[in-house]
Amino acid sequence: MAVSLLRRDKRSAAASLKAECSRPDGRGVQLLNDLLDSVLSPERALAEAEVIEWCKCLIAGGESFDDFCKMVCAYDNATLCGLVWTANFVAYRCRTCGISPCMSLCAECFNAGEHTGHDFNMFRSQAGGACDCGDSSVMRDSGFCKRHRSTASLNIPSVPNELMMMSEHILPRVILRLVQHLRDGYSEPVSDPATERDLQKTLQQMDPLISLLEDLTKMGGATRSILTRVLANHQIYKDLCSGDLCTGEKTYAKKNYEKYLAALKGSGLVTSKERSVTSVLDQMAGASNVTILGATAGTGQMDSSDEEEQDGNQRVGKRKRVELCNSTKDPSIMDILKHKCFLEEILFWTVKYEFPQKMVTFLLNMLPDQDYKPAPNQVTFHLPLHRYYAMFLSKAIRCQQLDLDSLLPDQEMLMKMMVHPLQIQASLSEIHSNMWVRNGLQIKGQAMTYVQSHFCNSMIDPDIFLLQVCASRLDPDYFVSSVFERFKVVDLLTMASQHQNAALDTEHERSMLEGALTFLVILLSLRIHLGMTDDEILRAEMVAQLCMSDRTHSTLLDLIPENPNPKSGIIPGSYYFENMLSAVADFKAPVFEPGGSMQQGMYTPKADVWNQEFDPIMVILRTVYRRDVQSAMDRYMGFLKQTGKFCGNPWPPYRERAPLNPSYKGLMRILHCKTLHIVLFTLLYKMSMDHQNMSEHILCMVLYLIELGLDNLPEETVEEEEMFGEERCSDSWFHGTNIATNLNHVINYVRVRVPETAPEVTREPPASTSSDTSSFVQGSRRATALNRESSNTAQVFSLVAERRRKFQEIINRNSDNAIQNADVRPKTSKWTAPSSTPQLTTAILEVRESMLSLLIKLHYKLSGKQNSYYPFWLEDSESTSRLDPMQQSHGDGTTAVERILIKTAARSRQNKCSIEEICRKVAPPVPPKKNSSADKKALDKEERRQKARERQQKLLAEFASRQKSFMETAMDLESPDSDVAMDIGSSEQQDSETVYDCVICGQSGPSTEERPTGLVVLLQASSVLGHRRRSTEPKKLPTSDEEQIYPEDTCGTAHDVRITDLQQYFKDSSCLQSVSIGWEGGVYVQTCGHTLHIDCHKSYMESLRNDQVLQSFSVDKGEFTCPLCRQFANSVLPCYPEKSEEKSIWSPYISKTLQALIEEVEEQQEQLGMFPVSISSVTNLSKEMESVMKDIKNTTQKKYIDYGKTPGSPDNDFLFMYSVARLNLELELVHRGGNLCLGGASATTKRSCLNQLLHVLAMHMRLFRIDSAYNPWTRLTRLTQVIDSGICDDEKPEVPLLYRDISSLLLILVLTMPQELHKEHFTCIVKVLYNLLYTQAIATLSVRFSEEERTAWKNSGKLKIMCNSDKSWEVLLSHIIGELSKGKLYCASDTDQVSMLSTSVWSPQSIEYSIQQFCLPFLRTTSLLQHHLFGDDLPNCQRTEEEFGMLASYLGLLLSSLQSSDEANSSSCLEWPVAALDIISQWCSEVMTSAESHSEQVMNLLVQDPQWSLPCLLQLPENYNTIFQYYHRKACVHCSKVPKDPALCLVCGTFVCLKGQCCKQQSYCECVLHSQNCGAGTGIFLLINASVIIVIRGHRFCLWGSVYLDTHGEEDRDLRRGKPLYLCSERYKVLEQQWVTHTFDHINKRWGAHYNGL
Question: Which one, 24, 281, 383, 1417, has the greatest CB density within 10 A?
Fold first, then answer.
């Protein structure tokens, strides 16, 4: 029959089947099932269009599917829309209609509603959501669309049965087929790529079926109700998954079911108890804004009144907690783990398939159906009715002054009303105790939402207030017993050393008891709705948040709950808020820490707040994460230690509470009920006996409750309580309810129920009892005799039984029929009173203690000393007036105990006498069955603990000291105390060899040729010096079209122009020795100072390559981190083996004449390039030196190396190598502040690697031989004939000496000298070069003179020619002017450009000053070179005017006696090897000879100005809006489009496109390309639309932070808050300093690869 139906038209077949199914004989249903067996057969692909078409036609029952949809939608009576959407869905939000700020509406509901004139906005959903139309808890009814208003559903008729008949028969089979498909398609492990592809294929195949189900859910409530029944009904699931209706093939059904069981076993449900299955229902609740219930706690109890109904009507989501070992095969356990309905299994597969979007959307679409919710025997944080009632009570009492009793129901209703909020508090504690791990992170997310600031006003605060109201009106004993019962710690509250707890595991008992006590403290301490004013509430909230952590202003605004009274005016950001903030907090300006973290402007509590207002109870209430409580306590401890108030580990301070509103006075009765006192006594006893599961927090809360009771005594006096207590109560524990009296009450014996193995069982009976029976293990008659003997002999206490008796009394009192109407059933076995537990036995425990005696013994235990407490009033009888316990508000547990004892003594004369008596005779309690060694162990326990704490504190202090010392040497770049240079290679001059420590193998020894040691270094290309300018004023960032930045005045551009001009007129090889390069793209070498063996480093790199851990650096590029300090590095610089004795201090004034030294230098230059470690004798050291030289070359781009006309020529390499030395010397000078007045104090000198770098460079530079015919030394020291330019191959002359860079000549001469270079020779070279430098200074100066001034100085100098004319600047100036005038060179200088150089008259003083300023850059660089070569300490002076004389004396150019005298002028340093005028004439003739070919460039080449200002970034405007308004719509200069992410280079001001594809060149985006061109791989960019700085360093980048902050010192990343931003000068200076000192890699830690995509 099914085959014939398949051949027919689908619609006609469906119509006939619908008619058949309407008959009562059931034949039609059988035919339908046969057809479905074929259509939904597992052999057919689920994605077949034929299958989906059959399903649609059968569901429609012969109608077209579209017509069927319209008919069903007409019967939709759902009052909730619930439309679920995913990312990028356009939705609406109306603030006028919204109650919750998170409300959202779909476009259909929004357009169908009345929102004209409302404050609404359209938005594009980022992660998905659901429509809230119809949900009155989220939005006002007036905003509902016509379809979802509550009155709209009243006029809609009910859906006809025949319309949905086919759906009811077909949908179960459709869901079954979906589940079968999910089972078949799943395989482990999911992490395998092939398996992951298979899972994706499975999901794709079921897409059409899921789409069909989604369409059905969108038809309205009729189809959703059918789907709900199918998904949630246990019987349907059982019949289809285990009956014959599976597929008709039992073989397939069996295999399919086995796959399900295999997946179930492989899930977290059956492994160790630490694993869990995520609750998808909870995730849905967070995403859909619809109330949904969480899953049952792992050890949760069922309420007794609902237990039978729960057993008979199990519903969705119910789970029992099962703990299995991996090897268990118990079939009954598997029965529990198996799912009970389709919904549970689909949720299971949703998790296993990692939440496929369509499945989640389908499940979320079902949420509007009310039957879709799980069973009520679970916990939920989202039932709001009682909270509305609580807020109504609060407003009525506070605002309307109504009588609270007139608004409250009867006692029975209050009892029922408190059950749910009390269960929530218990569940919170369970969640924090990790008892809900099977629900994953979702349940923790709900718990955090419940307490966080955005929702606390409508969630936890009303719950606490309602419980406070209930506690103030209900019997206190009943309320206290209810609390401990809900927290499941009743069995723990026994004085026996052992107990059985059927409700909790042992590992959860302590945390649950802590939770119960903390809840009671919060309940009794919180005053938010009990009398605090709005100002007091705001202050308390603010103090609590600030005590947890320093907060930014915006964070504080976000964390402070909105005041529940909208008319109070106290809202975040208001005038009241700012005033309150300034009253309780100090503002800390934003700083940058050495570790690299960028700190924003923070508010920190004032000292008075810590001292008087820090309230740990408020902190506990407002903490989302428990670690915040510990953070607050750590900060509190830091304050106490800093102010000297307390040096130990403090306890949370006790704070006196504000007075209660008279309507809530009954709340304090909780503190004066016997049940609580019994609990407090029991816990004090257990703490004193060191019972398990007791903690310091429990004792703290117990003492807190006792102190609260003493501060809130009832109105009747203590004497009245003592007098009438016995008559008013016959309870055997305490005679009264006043805590002041009960503290002194002695408990002699207690009858306890303990396991048979407990130590108490074997004890002998007390002597005070009758002795007719020697054993009373199970004898009830014996127990009765004991009770009959004395009411104080033995007491038994059951919180559960006490609660039941009180509950029954109240019900009987309220209604005569209450017993018949109230279904009060006994608890199940896990809540049975101890007396009925068969495996327990009765024991008599001798106590003979009072709470006072226990407190005093605990004082001994906490202090670690016997008899540690002695009442101070016994020492001074008149000291009673000093009983001010609040003077001891700060301290530890002993302080808390002392404070309680002082208050107790002040409240009662009898207690005072009792304390004195106890202190005289008390002894520490002895736990049962402890021998002498155990006693000693118990007594010494606290002492050992204290010593361990002291040792730990000492170790931590030592570690902190070492860490601070390391940070000072490794990170601080501006330390003013490093006056003494600590060069790596010469730090131990007393030893014969320098010894190095390898940070990898730990061995110490010298660096040898066979096993060299190297410095950990970072090589990086640098263009910092190239961005220096002449002007000391930084360039401003253009903020208008009229403003521009011209790069022509930069150091890099000026040197490029100079070398180009030289190469145009002179020999190329000579040009490449006349200048230095590296101003742009030079290589800077820096080190952390740590050394390692080269072979150890290679092994270390190999281990990094094999390490699978994701690293932030590229090992393939040679990058690594120092094994000791973790500083970023990329090479190792070999340490040259040397002996310190070679660096002997040599006095420059010895018997050798200058001429003799000049000859010695010349002789050494004529020798071959002999080097101790020559290339001919290849050693490991020479190999490593060659290797590091390759690394240096590869660090920068080729265009920054090849300046010669012949690429790759040796002259290029020669120029590059000495320029590396020049760059590192110049950068060190910049780091020292640009001068050496104070010795250039800087921590960089401690980590200098220049000495080792010079060795490496010298080894390679000596391979180059300078032709003696062109040796500059000869032309510097003797009179020679000018070489005919015709002998040059290119017919170009040598560069005249007056055109050459003196510092470059110095490095060439020093680095090509044979090692070791003696200091006397170094000084000789400096003296000779100074003569040339002085001549250049005068020549440059003469060009700046006017024609009249030149004539005047020329004639003046001629008149002063005398015997000492070689050191007279007037004579030399006159001579140079005369020589240069011969070639009419000055004619070209008489232009406007040159005349602008000087507009004042030149005096002798100004001339001397100009010459010194011209010479100072050379003297500074040379002094640094001498310092690194010979280890001399740099001199220092206090005034900049003294710097020239100081450095000249340091270099041996000037006698020390002349350093500070008037004769210490620049000419005094001259010492000519030959006649000054003759050699100057020779140098000038070189210029004159070559001037004919470049007369127009003579002055540009002759005038050298080595003075440059320090490098700096662009000057930014004060207001960020100035930048934003100009640049955020500025068009790109390349593509002429407005960039999506515009950025600015803060070095040169270039406007670039971040990640712009339009400006991409050869796969490099514009920012990366610009960083290479502008900074040689380093770029600093300001992102216009985000206000943050991004730093690019090579192939990596990082988000640096923002230099623009709001008025509260906060960043506004991505401009989300839209606050006005202002420049933070301090941050900008830090950014500039990191750029100048090349420390981006060291300080900023969060780097990532940019893959050229920025």
Answer: 281
Average pLDDT of each block of 10 consecutive residues along the chain (1654 residues)? Answer: 73 82 80 83 81 85 83 74 74 81 82 82 72 82 80 65 81 86 78 75 84 81 80 81 51 80 64 33 33 33 34 34 37 58 81 76 65 57 85 89 88 88 91 78 84 86 93 91 90 80 81 92 91 87 91 86 58 71 87 64 89 90 86 89 82 86 89 90 88 87 91 64 37 77 85 71 43 27 36 50 52 42 32 42 82 86 74 56 57 85 84 79 49 48 67 72 58 39 38 77 84 90 89 83 76 87 84 86 90 89 77 81 87 77 45 79 67 57 86 86 75 86 91 76 61 85 63 80 49 83 89 79 90 88 80 70 66 81 64 43 81 89 89 81 85 69 71 85 83 73 83 90 85 79 89 78 83 89 90 88 87 81 88 89 82 76
| Pairing relationship of beta strands 90-94 and 1596-1601 according to DSSP bridges | unpaired
Contact 751, 794 (CB under 8 A): yes
Which residue matches tokens 């220096």?
A: 1028
888 CB-near residues (< 8 Å, 6+ apart): 895, 898, 899, 902
Alpha helices in 1365-1403 (DSSP H): 1369-1381, 1386-1389, 1392-1395
* Stretch (H or E) spanning 367: none
Cα distances from 1491 to residues 298, 754, 1170, 1284, 1421, in angstroms, run: 97, 114, 39, 15, 31
Separation of alpha carbons 469 and 530, rounded Å? 9
**Residue written as tokens 């290309």?**
1021
Exposure on the CB side of residue 1491, measured as CA atoms within 13 A: 24
Tokens linked to 655? 């704070």
Residue type, 702: V
Tokens of 399: 């605002």
Q: Which 3 state secondary structure label does DSSP give 1226?
A: helix
Burial class (CB in 10 A: 0-12, 13-18, 19+), 1519: middle
Question: Would you say 632 and 616 are in contact if contact means Cβ atoms under 8 Å apart?
Answer: yes
Query: In the beta sheet, which residues pair with residue 1580?
Result: 1591
Give every CB contact of residue 1520 below 8 A, 6+ residues apart in sequence: 1587, 1604, 1620, 1621, 1622, 1623
Q: Among 221, 220, 206, 198, which residue's Cα sits nearest to residue 175?
A: 206
Q: What single letter denotes the amino acid at residue 689?
A: M
Nearest to 1091 by CA among 1015, 1009, 983: 1015
- d(Cα 366, Cα 217) in Å, to the nearest integer? 7
Helix 342-352 and helix 221-232, axial crossing angle in degrees, nearest 10:
90
Look up residue 351 and give its amino acid: V
Cβ-based neighbour number of residue 149 at 10 Å: 17
DSSP symbols for 119-179: -EEEEE-SS-EE--TT-TTTB-GGGS-GGGSTTGGGGSPPPPHHHHHHHHHHHHHHHHHHH
Backbone angles phi and psi of 1121, in degrees to 5: -115, 145
Is the Cβ–Cβ distance between 1173 and 1263 less than 8 Å? no
Q: How far apart are CA 512 and CA 1334, in angstroms?
A: 86
Distance CA 240, CA 247 (A): 9
Where b means 16+ CB within 10 Å and e means fewer, 178-193 reads: bbbbbbbbbeeeeeee
**What is the rounded distance in angstroms from the CA atom of residue 247 to the CA atom of residue 235?**
18
Three-state secondary structure readout of 506-570 = HHHHHHHHHHHHHHHHHHHHCCCCCCCCHHHHHHHHHHHHHHHCCECHHHHHHHCCCCCCCCCCC
- pTM of the entire predicted model: 0.65
Q: Given the structure tokens 């007037």, which residue do they identify?
A: 1370
The structure tokens listed for 1047 are: 């790069």
- On whether the CB atoms of residues 1414 and 1442 are closer than 8 A, the answer is no
Q: What are phi and psi of 1586, to 5 degrees?
A: -125, -15
Distance CA 618, CA 601 (A): 25
Beta bridge partners of 1005: 996
* Dihedrals phi, psi of 1412, to nearest 5 degrees: -65, -40
